[in-house]
């Protein structure tokens, strides 16, 4: 997605440890006009999949998932990283390791919101090692729902997550795939799609 790649080059900041900071427009301050284009593109890529629910993980994926859901006219469910008093009853749960935060989270979704009748599209902002998506896919599998695919805004193509998930048969669509980043020069190269 050319518009996204241009925005990453303009406002993305490469930090030590292969961290791409895009908080100026994606996951802290959110550019809603860009999100609209992202949502349209995810709809274009998955419109024939029969999506009736979108699943993401808190917190950075929620805004993107909500805008995308408007194009599908479906609800968004987000996996919570902490059990709260608001979630009563049975839950689906699994563990995920966050590359960015360097810790393991228990993620949960109330059984009320995922069922065997659902055709679920996963949406997230980043894909590096793929642990968050693996966790979301495990929740979908536990529920008996059908995983129709995963939409990622930015994939780090030089890390193994995307390739591993594709080998598992997940229909994965990334809008921008970063092939390499150079912290010293600020250069970012993208994979041709």
UniProtKB/TrEMBL annotation:
This is Xanthine phosphoribosyltransferase. GO terms for cellular component: cytoplasm. It is found in: Cytoplasm. The lineage of its organism: Bacteria, Bacillati, Bacillota, Clostridia, Lachnospirales. Pathway: Purine metabolism; XMP biosynthesis via salvage pathway; XMP from xanthine: step 1/1. GO terms for molecular function: xanthine phosphoribosyltransferase activity. The gene is xpt. 5-phospho-alpha-D-ribose 1-diphosphate binds at residues 128-132. Homodimer. Its EC number is 2.4.2.22. InterPro entries: PRTase-like (IPR029057), PRTase_dom (IPR000836), Pur/Pyrimidine_PRTase (IPR050118), Xanthine_PRibTrfase (IPR010079). It catalyses: XMP + diphosphate = xanthine + 5-phospho-alpha-D-ribose 1-diphosphate. Xanthine binds at residues 20, 27, 156.
């Amino acid at each position: 997605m050319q518009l996204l790649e241009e925005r990453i080059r303009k406002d993305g900041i490469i930090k030590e440890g292969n961290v791409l900071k895009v908080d100026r427009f994606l996951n802290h301050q959110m550019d809603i006009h860009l999100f609209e284009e992202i949502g349209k593109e995810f709809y274009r890529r998955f419109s024939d999949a029969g999506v009736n629910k979108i699943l993401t993980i808190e917190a950075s994926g929620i805004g993107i998932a909500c805008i995308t859901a408007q194009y599908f006219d479906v609800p968004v469910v987000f996996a919570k990283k902490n059990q709260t008093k608001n979630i009563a009853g049975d839950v689906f749960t699994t563990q995920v390791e966050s590359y960015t935060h360097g810790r393991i989270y228990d993620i949960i979704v109330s059984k009320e919101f995922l069922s065997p009748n659902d055709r679920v599209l996963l949406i997230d902002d980043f894909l590096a090692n793929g642990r968050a998506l693996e966790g979301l896919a495990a929740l979908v599998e536990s529920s008996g729902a059908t995983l129709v695919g995963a939409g990622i805004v930015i994939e780090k193509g030089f890390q193994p997550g995307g390739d591993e998930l594709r080998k598992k048969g997940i229909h994965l669509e990334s809008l921008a795939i970063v092939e390499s980043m150079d912290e010293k020069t600020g250069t970012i190269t993208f994979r041709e799609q």
